[in-house]
Amino acid sequence: MKLINKSAQALLALAGMAFTHSAVAADTVKVGVLHSLSGTMAISETSLRDVLLFTFDEINAKGGVMGKKIEPVVVDGASNWPLFAEKAKQLLEKDKTAAVFGCWTSVSRKSVLPVFEKNNGLLFYPVQYEGEEESKNVFYTAEAVNQQATPAVDYMLAKKKEKFYLIGSDYVYPQTTNLVLLEYLLSKGVPLENIGGGFKKDSSGKIISAGKYTPFGHTDYQQIVAEIKQFAAGGKACVINTLNGDTNVPFFKEYAAAGLTAESCPVVSFSISEDEFRALPAKQLVGQLGCWTYFESIKSDANKTFVSNFQKWLKETTVDGVKKEGRVTCSPMVLSYDGVYLWKAAVEKAGSFDVDKVRAALQSGISFDGPGGKVTTQSNMHLTKNVFIGETKADGQFKILKEYKDVFGQPWLKGTFKAK
Amino acid sequence: MPLSPAPIPLLLMRLLFAAIAFLLACCAPLAQADAPAEIIAKAVLLDDKSEEQIALIRSGEPSPELLALLTLWKEGGIFLVEGPEGTKIPVTLEDAKDADDKQAARLLLTRQPYLGPDGKPIRLLASDLNAAETDSDLRSAMKSILDLAGLASPDRSARLQAVETLGMEQDPLRLPALRARISKETDSEIQHALKEAVALTELKDADPATVTLACRALGELGSIRSQDALRLLAKDGHPAARTAQDALRKIEQHLQTVNIWGTLFRGLSLGSVLLVAALGLAVTFGLMGVINMAHGEMIAVGAYTTYVVQCIFGPGLELSPFGIHIVLPSMKATGWLYDSYFLFAIPLSFLTAARAGVVLERCVIRFLYRRPLESLLATWGVSLVLQQLFRLTFGANNVQVASPNWLSGHWLINDVSLGWNRVFVIGFAAAIVLGVFLLLARTPLGLLMRAVMQNRTMAACMGVRTERVNLLTFGLGSGLAGLAGAFLSQIGNVGPSLGQSYIVDAFMTVVVGGVGSLFGTIFSALGIGMADQALQQILGNPVLGKILVLVGIILFLQWRPAGLFVTRSRSLDN
Fold first, then answer.
1. A403 and A330 in one domain?
2. Which of A207, B129, B258, B393 has the most neighbouring CB atoms within 10 Å?
3. Position B224 in a domain
4. A110: which residues sit within 8 A by CB, 6+ positions away?
5. Which of residues 53-112 of A touch B (CB under 8 A)?
6. Residue A219 is nearest to which of B135, B417, B501, comparing CB atoms?
7. Interface check A192 vs B, CB under 8 A
8. Domains of chain A: total
9. Is residue A419 part of a domain?
10. pLDDT over 70 at B29, yes or no
């Protein structure tokens, strides 16, 4: 009898917990933060956790979302892709979060996708990615390929560059992006022999991989740089770089040692933002180009306020593990920030936290004046936003050279460009 | 009526004169070029409008003063300070630094001291100021102006660069200047470059005969940079197409020679990197028989030492491991003094890593000399502890180690590019191999080391203090790893997991060479390096090359399990 009593009590307690822990309690609403706070990706993803917590505090200080305070549930994906799926499940099924902000690598996004689709959750994904995906359960604040790679190529073509060398880390984002770029370059009249890095063809002769790829942690770039040097000997050449993380260090050191400079053969990189720049050798990178939808050096009031508020928050916060010194802001951080505000606007427009209603509101086109300028949601769950080309400076910031206004995010690009 | 009509024409004439004088006064600055300082001062203030800036700097006569100012601007030596009412005033800081590193500012326009409201010259700190910015377009325009002037520069490398850039522009207007230079030039390499530049420019000539001659000349010169231009001609159906094709074939042959020599050099340098990384292990694992999984972390100790030395020479360093706040002083060195940090870092890396090795030997390894499997596990544990220690001390991010200027250039010998850092590693590897050889073969300590490694018990019976020799040998091996770290910091990442990326390569090199043989390590390092680079060159794929090398090594070890050079030693047989 006693035993039964105890189990009944336990059940009641469990039920009670479940009740209080549903997404919308009396005065708070739960949202998930799903980033790697340990492991190899922690260096990049911890910054996104920080900026998300800052955004929640900022919104809560102004009264929250529809009068409810945001209550973040922070989980650690630990750079382990199956664990991402488990944590996503926990956020959706146990914590019943109204929305989740998270993921960095494409593989982590692919890993959580089935979980979000099964539970009809809503994930805001903030990091440049390769496209070829459009789920009703993911809102991509991220740069699509036509908001980063193709504008960079446009810029290079405008600078009278005729030869393009493609180099990247060997995984899905660089491979897919370079295939799209190959089609794009051919459609712009750049002949195949002017695209460097090599091609892989399948048995029918169709190109299935374009460019030179190195694994993560590759250290010896002598041969590749020698090849680039011969490729660029005739001038009018540039390098499109999708190398990830710290492999950029040996690459750029070798590049500079071979006497290649930003003037003789510029490198435009898609994976080096202000945040990554902190760990790279500044001297070797000065003058090289980057392309993002936000730079910290944007001279707008919205950006100045954002940067100073974030720095102030960093000084004051008591959250464990937040690094306070030498912090910068970068595009994935701002797209996380924009994502939270867009979600807030969508909830307020829908008048509900229900995922279907919020999605409908998002798809109807909501605008937000973010630090990188105005962003507008699209019916294909992507964002219309401004694209910037910048040149790296010795202090780790970018000098903005060119701005493309209101670029429409297109995830499906492969096969859309016809060769001339 | 002869009424004088004079007053009116006179008035008109006067008006006309006045108007002409006025116009002349207005046009004067246009007709006569601005003074160089005015041009630059104007251009600097047009920040963010590079097209106008380029037009302005092109408008000036390329006088030495203008060139000097352009160079100053390009190198970030012109600063913009806030003047009254938000205006910006371009100034330069060229005078001597005082105790606070401040310099007296001079106005760019007049080169007079910049006076404050109190009439005293203002002193400023360069690092506090905003340098006038340049972007790549502007810098290319500056470079083109400087290059034309650079043709006559007394500095050899400046002259060479100028010739190369002018050749690439293929601007027929530059031909007279280039041709005039050929007869004056004495340096053979620049002569070669000048001929190439002239021929490249002549490809744009309207006369097919000139173009044909130019094609032939380019083929004979083996001009790699003219390939793209020649390919266009070869396709065109141009009268010179045949000659262009011949020239391309010649250049292709030249390229092959260049690639063979280049691959040899790159193989030698990769081999040297492997050798430097593995030599320490050849001592600790090869000679002593300790399976030291913490070898990679000893490399990282050397690399971090280099980082700390660099920070002390440069901006200083603040560390807070375990909540203890440590502030390392800063020497604030610049120029050659800062660049010399690496020379101090090399011996310090050796000593720090050797000291770390000695501690490791005393605390862990000496209990495990006869138990290789336990030593494997224990040193692996030590390596994890050390990695976490780096993370706690220096942070999880990689740290930046800047190469000194004398290590970041390259030599170009007959189109084969030899990076100074690569030449340095080859020399460095040769020097430490020689050093280790002399130590082992020619010193009493070396004799004792060899005796102990061959037979520990027997050596002990002969009165050798084997404990001490073990300690010193392990210290030597770790110190060599530290040296490797100092060098590897110049070509790659310095981070907590630095050691992990070299440990496998290091073991591979030692095992292939034959455990216990230093010469085997040298041969295998160079062999693996050469094979890797040659396969990369042939296959055009960095990963496939490495895989094939590994497959080759597995097959080789099936055939000769003891490696290239077999050493018989009782300590190893155990």
1. no
2. B258
3. yes
4. none
5. none
6. B501
7. no
8. 2
9. no
10. no
Determine, yes or no, domain membership for A204. Answer: yes
Judgement on whether residues A246 and A321 belong to the same structural domain of the protein: no
Nearest to A346 by CA among A332, A362, A335: A362
User: Which of B259, B493, B533 is nearest residue A246 as measured by Cβ atoms?
Assistant: B493
| Residue A370 pLDDT | 94
- Number of domains composing chain B: 2
Query: A59 and A199: one domain?
Result: no
pLDDT at residue B2 is higher than 50:
no
β partners of residue A201: A207
Does the pLDDT at position A1 exceed 60? Answer: no
Please give the pLDDT value at position B297: 96
CATH number at residue A183: 3.40.50.2300
Pairing status of strand A123-125 against strand A99-102? parallel
A276-294, pLDDT tens digit by residue? Answer: 887 777 777 888 999 999 9
Q: Is the pLDDT of residue A394 over 90?
A: no
B146 in a structural domain? no
CB pairs under 8 A, 24+ apart, for B503-507? B503/B293, B503/B295, B503/B296, B505/B274, B505/B277, B505/B278, B506/B274, B506/B277, B506/B278, B506/B280, B506/B281, B506/B295, B506/B296, B507/B278, B507/B281, B507/B285
**Pick from B226, B255, B233: which is nearest to B167 by CA?**
B226
B13 is a domain residue:
no
Domain that holds residue B224: 151-239
Question: Does A257 contact B419 at a Cβ distance shorter than 8 Å?
Answer: yes
**pLDDT over 70, % of chain A:** 94
- Nearest of B119, B137, B35, B126 to residue B80 by alpha carbon: B126
Q: Based on the domain organization, do B323 and B440 belong to the same domain?
A: yes
Chain A hits for B533, Cβ within 8 Å: 222-223
Q: Which of B264, B327, B398, B504 to mutate to test the interface with A (most CBs of A within 10 A)?
A: B398
A 317-356 residues inside an 8 A Cβ radius of B: none
Contacts (Cβ under 8 Å, ≥6 apart) of A149: A177, A180, A181, A184, A240, A270, A291
Between CA B179 and CA B198 the distance in angstroms is: 7
Q: How many CB pairs under 8 A join A and B?
A: 121
Question: Closest-CA residue in chain B for A220?
Answer: B270
Nearest to A279 among B227, B397, B536 (CB): B397
- Is the CB of B266 less than 8 angstroms away from the CB of A226? yes
The predicted model gives A81-96 an average pLDDT of 95
Residue A279 near residue A246 (C-beta atoms within 8 A): yes
pLDDT value for B5: 46
Residues making up chain B, counted from first to last: 574
B427 and B306 belong to one structural domain: yes
Residue B439's CATH number? 1.10.3470
Letter for the amino acid at A277? F
- pLDDT computed for residue A24 by the predictor: 61
Both B262 and B232 in one domain: the answer is no
For the stretch A115-170, pLDDT in tens is 999 999 999 999 999 999 999 999 999 999 999 999 999 999 998 899 999 999 99
Q: Which residues of B touch A278 (CB under 8 A)?
A: 397
Verify whether the Cβ–Cβ distance A223 to B409 is below 8 Å: no
pLDDT, average across residues B455-475: 90
pLDDT the model gives residue B221: 87
> Do A263 and A395 fall into the same domain?
yes
> Does residue B395 lie within any of the structural domains?
yes
ipTM: 0.78
Asked if A198 and B537 come within 8 Å (Cβ–Cβ), the reply is no
The answer to whether A266 contacts B402, with C-beta atoms less than 8 Å apart, is no
Do residues A303 and A292 share a domain?
no
At A210-248, the pLDDT tens digits run 999 998 888 889 999 999 999 998 888 999 999 987 788
Domain assignment of residue A363, given as a range: 2-143+299-383
Based on the fold, state whether residues A283 and A192 are members of the same structural domain.
yes
